[in-house]
Amino acid sequence: MEANIRLELRQQNEDDSVYDPASKSLALALEKEFRKQCESIEILWGPINPPSKKFVREIQLQAIDKLVTLDIGKWLSKNQPRRIMETEMQATLPASPQAVARARWLRFDSEADNVELKSPFDPSPNKYPPACKTCGWGDFAQVPEPFRVSAALTKLKNKELSRCENGVFVVSSKVLSVLKDLSADDLIIRRVQITGRKTFADDWHAVRPKNALRSYGGLRGDGPVCSKCDLPARLVPRDSSYGFFKDFGSPACNLALVDEHPYTYKDSDWDHGTAKPHDIVISGGLFAALYNAGVKGLAWPEAISCFSAKPDQPTLEPTQRFVERFPGPTNKILKHKVKSS
Ligand SMILES: [Zn+2]
Q1: 315 near 304, Cβ under 8 Å?
Q2: CA 305 to CA 37: how far, in whole Å?
Q3: 116 CA to centre of ligand 1 in angstroms
Q4: C-alpha 37 to ligand 1 mean position (Å)
Q5: What's the predicted TM-score (pTM) here?
Q6: How much distance in Å is there from the Cα of 251 to the middle of ligand 1?
Q7: Which domain covers residue 81, as residue numbers?
């Protein structure tokens, strides 16, 4: 089996808790269309209390071929009644230790807070030069030297990495040495300085991937488009995220940005100068190397959710990258106990 697909159906332009009876006919038609390509299709009916089959909340499919997800996306765009939308369609595989270690790509995150900002709504102390003088869109590839963080860095207890804005991670020297050892070509590295201090935080380093993978849906433009650079006022993730990439990129790459640009949320006053969330992906082998080195604060992925739209790019590779460095019991990741949620 290549993918578990979860598809949530809701009514357009209404409160999130409202479902539409038309979801029922849509779900039944979808089941008929894709029955042969799926190992199982389960329809979750609503309302739950009292139990009834008035509408469909969710459809769960187990597909033999991951690409069924994209076929369903195309089918939905043709057959979906206007007032029904899918709030989320996500393909995943369970994040068992064996699967995580062999995953081509995983979402990379930290258990720590973002140390760049003093508080989540504070502006970033880092400024990016404009890539476009007309609209002021930043050149986010120009990571500042030094990279400035808040004093929250001094309070990071038992965590060796923090995910900051714009695809930058602030990492300990141990994390940096593993990254440099195994994926030096993927990194932009900067010194770290706590705002208001004269010296550098020598035990910490800022890293940002050089390369970006293009996600299948990509980002959606919002607001007026600049006449000079063609970029919209804001970039936001699409409502539906299939977890698919157009291409997994160079086989040698082990750390990458998801899409070229960071995004901003639609429903906020944040502009180009402040919030710049940007997802990062890491190869399972590099993640395993960090895990095996005992790095603290690595977030175990909730699921494996990076798939390629190219049939010849497997979600899980035949062997764990860099496994030769971790003979026998030193490949500790395989003993990881996944917490059940
Ligand atoms: Zn512009």
Answers
A1: yes
A2: 20
A3: 26
A4: 45
A5: 0.91
A6: 33
A7: 3-93
Asked if residue 92 lies in contact with residue 303, where contact means CB atoms within 8 angstroms, the answer is: yes
Split into its structural domains, the chain has a count of 2
Residue 283 CA neighbour count, 13 Å, CB half? 24
User: Per-residue DSSP letters for 138-193?
Assistant: B-TTS--SSEEE-GGGGG--S--EEE-STT-EEEEHHHHHHHHHHHGGGEEEEEEE
Whether the CB-CB separation of 175 and 108 falls below 8 Å is answered with: no
Q: What is the maximal distance between C-alpha atoms in the chain?
A: 66
- Taking the C-alpha atoms of residue 76 and residue 245, their distance in angstroms, rounded to an integer, is 19
192 Cα: distance to centroid of ligand 1 (angstroms): 30
Domain's final residue, options 46, 66, 93: 93
Domain check: are 145 and 67 in the same one?
no
* pLDDT number for residue 239: 62
Whether the per-residue pLDDT at 32 is higher than 70: the answer is yes
